[in-house]
UniProtKB/TrEMBL annotation:
tRNA processing keyword on record: no
Other noteworthy facts: The active site is a conserved redox-active cysteine residue, the peroxidatic cysteine (C(P)), which makes the nucleophilic attack on the peroxide substrate. The peroxide oxidizes the C(P)-SH to cysteine sulfenic acid (C(P)-SOH), which then reacts with another cysteine residue, the resolving cysteine (C(R)), to form a disulfide bridge. The disulfide is subsequently reduced by an appropriate electron donor to complete the catalytic cycle. In this atypical 2-Cys peroxiredoxin, C(R) is present in the same subunit to form an intramolecular disulfide.
Keywords attached to this entry: Antioxidant, Disulfide bond, Oxidoreductase, Peroxidase, Redox-active center
Protein role: Thiol-specific peroxidase that catalyzes the reduction of hydrogen peroxide and organic hydroperoxides to water and alcohols, respectively. Plays a role in cell protection against oxidative stress by detoxifying peroxides.
HAMAP family: Tpx (MF_00269)
Organism: Caecibacteroides pullorum
Protein name as it appears in the record: Thiol peroxidase
Length: 166
């Protein structure tokens, strides 16, 4: 079982954090129009999963803004912003912030995404929400990069993630 930290306190995650080299499990997450979005829809593309607890926190909002500018400009790359926020919150945030190059997705419905990717917080004040992580899936459908951010209140290492895409 993987762990992260929230304000210096250990937080256990349900399942094992996904590993580089494994085939990325498909998922069905909810778009802002309430339709289902599947990873298989992006076959042949590089896919950045920007996973975070909630858009209503400064660090999570910052990560969506930065990935919108950085990774979204790379060829054959799609950026997914994934949290358990409701699709309505994703739509409001993206409209207000002018986010146009990221696909916001909600894991609010019952799915196995959080356990298959090992990012569901099992305990701590944010139990049930997604841990902060970046997973990059290559065009071949295999995980090419992972970062389970060691402290929920910190941003991911954008430069390291983008190196994999260059």
């Amino acid at each position: 079982m993987a762990t992260t930290n929230f304000k210096g306190q250990p937080v256990r995650l349900i399942g094992e954090f996904i590993q580089v080299g494994t085939v990325a499990p498909d998922f069905g997450l909810v778009k802002t129009d309430l339709s289902t979005f599947s990873l298989k829809d992006l076959s042949g593309k590089n896919v950045v999963l920007n996973i975070f607890p909630s858009l209503d926190t400064a660090v999570c909002a910052t990560s969506v803004r930065k990935f919108n500018k950085l990774a979204a400009s790379l060829p054959d790359t799609i950026v997914l912003a994934i949290s358990k926020d409701l699709p309505f919150a994703h739509a409001r945030f993206c409209t207000t912030e002018g986010i146009e190059h990221v696909i916001p997705l909600s894991d609010f419905r019952i799915s196995d995404f959080d356990e298959n990717y090992g990012v569901c917080m099992a305990d701590g004040p944010l139990a049930g929400l997604l841990a902060r992580a970046v997973v990059i899936i290559g065009k071949d459908g295999r995980v090419a990069y992972t970062e389970l951010v060691p402290e929920i209140t910190q941003e991911p290492d954008y430069d390291k993630a983008l190196e994999v895409l260059k």
